[in-house]
Structures are given as C-alpha cells and as structure tokens.
Design brief:
It is built from two helices and 36 strands. The protein is mainly beta. It has two domains: 339 residues, YVTN repeat-like/Quinoprotein amine dehydrogenase (Methylamine Dehydrogenase, Chain H, 7 Propeller), CATH 2.130.10.10; 103 residues, Immunoglobulin-like, CATH 2.60.40. Strand 12 and strand 13 form a beta hairpin. It starts with a helix and ends with a strand. 52% of the residues are buried.
Length: 467
C-alpha cells in the first residue's frame, strides 16, 4: 500500500530527531516531576525525583468508598495519564467518571475537563500537540479532543475495547492496542483512518511503548503474561516473550550503549529486565514492593520509576545496578506513572495547589493454598472508622463461588464468583483491621477462603493468609 509505505518511511527521521532531543537532557533534577494516577484516593501524586520525595497531591475526587451515592462533583477511578510534547500539560483519565482532566504542570492547577464515553482508559497528545486521543475502553472508539477548547471533535472507530494509543514522533502513524480484541490498530493520524490491523496473541493489552529509536513497539498482555514486539516499519509481529503473571506496563532504558526493556510483573512483585536484540533474553529480575504497575524512565535512562498498585507509592530503580534505591510513599493504588522533565522553572518550588498525602500505607496479605494450585492476595487499607479489603483470587475453579471469612467469626466477609479463567476480584468494606490485627507481627490464620458457602474451617479452606 503506497500511502502506508510513505507513512512508515517518514517515521525514521522523526525517531532520529527524538533521540537527539532526549540525549540533550541530563536528569533527574529538581525541575523534573514524577506523577502517579491514584485510583483509590482519586489523586495525582507529585514527586520530586531529585530528592525522591512526595511533594503533595492534586485532589480530583474523594477517596473510596465515598462513591456510593450520586456523584455531582469530582472524579472516580483516576487511572490513566498522558502529556503534551512541551511537558506543560498533564492529561489524567478517570475511568469511573468518564473524564479527561487537563492539568498545568507548572502550577498543578486544573485548567480544563472533558467528559466522554464509557470507561476511558488512557490518553495521549499527538506529536504536534494539536490533538488529544483518548481510548474509550468501555466502547469501541478513540475520542479526539481539542486541547485548547477541551471539546471532543471526532471519534475514530476501532474494535471493541481500545486500551491505549501512542504516536510515532513524526506524527504520521498512531498505534492503538486493545483490552478486549486481539489486534493492534495502525491509524493514519492525518485522515483518522485505520490503515492496518495487526493480529496479536491476546485480547487484553493495557499498555504499549516504543523503543528509543521507534523501530519497535512493545505491548504487554496482562492476562497471559506475555509481551509482543512489533516492527513499526513492516508492521509485523517479530516476537512474543513469556514475561510472567500480571504483566502490567513496560519501559526502556539505554545503559552502556545497550537498550533494555523493563517490565512490571504484578503477580510476582518484580520488574524483569530484557535485552532488546533479535532474541530478547532475561538479564535481571528486580524485587519491588507490592504489585508493580505503571512505569516510566527518566530521560537520561538513569532511573526507572515503578508505581506500586498495592504498595501505595513508587519504587526507584537505578539502571546501572538494577537495584531499587529509594521508595516514595504516595497515593492509594497508583496505576499509570509518568516522568516529565523541565516542568518547573529553576528556583521555583512547584508545590502550588498541592495538598498533603491523603492516605495511609496499605497492608498486604498473601494467600497461600491449602489444597490445589490457587493463589491470591488481599490488600487492607484503613479508611478511618472502616477498612477496605481488596481481594484478588487466581487459578481457582472457573464459574465458582468462593467465600471469605475471618477466623473466629461465623459471618462471611464476602463472596466472589470466579470468571471463566478461575479469577475473581472485589472489595469488602467494614471494621475489620482491628479485629483481625492484620498488621500485627506474626499474626496468621485470620483470613480463610472457602469453596461455595461452607462455614469457616481452616482445615478445609482453599486459601489461607500467609502472614
């Protein structure tokens, strides 16, 4: 296809320019920022990467569970993020209130908001900064927004469940992965038309990223624990890597002249590092806090920042040693994470319009099998007079009810039905932390998962806590 060939050829020049620009910045400094989109506290946490400290939070809505009545103000499930090419605007997606919030990075102030279709997931500015594309994962299109008027200007039809979109630096092509369809849509940015669909191994792909030279696109498959590589010139799949249980996000760093891929593996609480040659190989495994999720690399490749979904903060990885060198406490259940350079003027504090941290640290409880191959984990978060227990269950019988108990209590905390893959996830709310003393050293045997509606019995449980 002549048009498609021309678009691909233009990409090489743009990629070379991007490499020159990135190489000119030495980072991190006090003028740079790390951001996380915090799904449970409905905040954006703002960090200073020069000191590895939380500066404060941008409050976009009330923390869970204060979302059980009609919501007239504020956002729910602050989840995705993107940014403008000049780093002056932060884009924040809330998939519970279907909103796109535009934030001035110099002042941390909301300057605009757009409400779009059901459950948007991620968004990004086009390479020229003139359009914002937001994938509407609960439907089947990409919403195109004017970043000056904050109005939706058109919709780009896709397959069901677009998960994320990113642009080639020359502005010719965009790539959109899907969360419900095993394809990648290649889109002509000028005409807003899909020019090719690339088949991939899984229908659940929440994240994509380009290699530093933009010659490849790598995308995660969270449901099957894999990463797919796509050549951005031939638009063909060149490889699939088995990465691990709950492969969330990925990022690249150039270390010693070689490019490496860093992949957050939520089910193993690690970041895995891969070479990026023709045959990708695992070169390091870095232990992190609970459920690593969002990732981004500093522009000088010296640091990789990892949001901890169940750790309510960020781990900082030094790429020279592949070690976690710092932890920054932040918002509750961070999802997307970004590193942005040169957003604060020299000498400025950059703390305007920030509020203090609104949440406490989470307590993580692993679940171990008594019988079978099941696994799971529970996250306990204090919400004042009540607590929230987020339960995630895996590798159990499909389409089956499981009941969660606290040892010594006859009444069940909650029941969950697994899906066709034997997975279930849900949140229980109540005054449980004090009774269970889940954060007490040496405490154990407090949480039991029973198949069906059986009464609590540790000897017959499917899963018990591993404290």
């Amino acid at each position: 296809m002549k048009t498609l060939s021309n678009l691909v050829n233009h990409a090489a020049a743009g990629a070379a320019l991007a490499l020159v620009v990135n190489a000119a910045w030495a980072l991190p400094t006090a003028q740079d920022r790390v951001y996380t989109a915090d799904q449970n506290s409905n905040t954006v946490s703002v960090f200073n990467p020069a000191t590895n400290t939380l500066l404060g939070q941008i409050k976009l809505g009330n923390a869970r569970p204060d979302v059980l009545s009609p919501l007239y103000r504020g956002e729910i499930n602050v989840h995705g993020m993107g940014f403008s090419p000049d780093h002056k605007t932060l884009l924040v997606i809330a998939n519970g209130s279907n909103s796109v919030t535009f934030i001035d990075t110099a002042t941390n102030k909301v300057k605009g908001k757009t409400y779009i279709g059901r459950s948007p997931h991620e968004g990004f500015f086009s390479a020229d900064g003139k359009e914002v594309w937001v994938v509407v994962r609960g439907e089947d299109y990409i919403s195109v927004i004017d970043p000056l008027t904050f109005k939706e200007t058109r919709r780009i039809q896709t397959d069901v469940g677009p998960g994320m979109v990113q642009f080639m630096p020359d502005g010719k092509l965009a790539f959109a992965v899907s969360s419900f369809t095993p394809t990648v849509d290649v889109i002509d940015v000028k005409t807003h038309e899909i020019v090719k669909r690339i088949s991939v191994v899984s229908p659940f792909s929440p994240f994509l990223q380009f290699t530093p030279d933009f010659k490849e696109l790598w995308m995660t498959h969270k449901d099957v624990g894999k990463v797919t590589r796509i050549d951005t010139r031939t638009l063909e799949v060149t490889g699939v890597i088995d990465t691990g249980f709950i492969s969330n996000h990925l990022s690249f760093a150039t270390v010693g002249g070689a490019v490496y891929a860093y992949v957050s593996i939520g089910g193993e609480n690690v970041v895995k590092v891969y070479s990026t040659g023709k045959e990708a190989t695992l070169v390091a495994t870095i232990a992190t806090g609970a459920l690593p999720h969002g990732m981004w690399t500093s522009d000088d490749s010296s640091r990789v920042y990892v949001g901890l979904e169940n750790g309510d903060g960020v781990d900082v990885i030094d790429t020279a040693s592949n070690q976690v060198i710092a932890h920054m406490a932040g918002g509750q259940a961070p999802q997307a994470l970004l590193f942005l350079s040169h957003v604060v003027a020299a000498g400025e504090a950059g703390t305007a319009n920030l509020v203090p941290r609104a949440n406490h640290d989470a307590v993580n409880i692993a679940l171990k099998p008594v019988t079978g191959a099941g696994k799971g984990f529970v996250v306990s978060r204090n919400l004042g007079v009540v607590d929230a227990l987020e339960v995630s269950l895996f590798k159990l019988k499909p389409e089956t009810i499981y009941t969660v108990y606290m040892s010594g209590q006859a009444a069940a905390l909650a029941s969950f039905k697994t899906d066709a893959k034997g997975m279930a996830n849900g949140t229980m709310i109540g005054p449980v932390r004090e009774a269970a003393r889940l954060d007490a050293a040496g405490a154990g045997g407090h949480l039991l998962v029973m198949e069906g509606a059986q009464p609590a019995d540790a000897s017959k449980a499917v899963l018990v806590d591993a404290l």
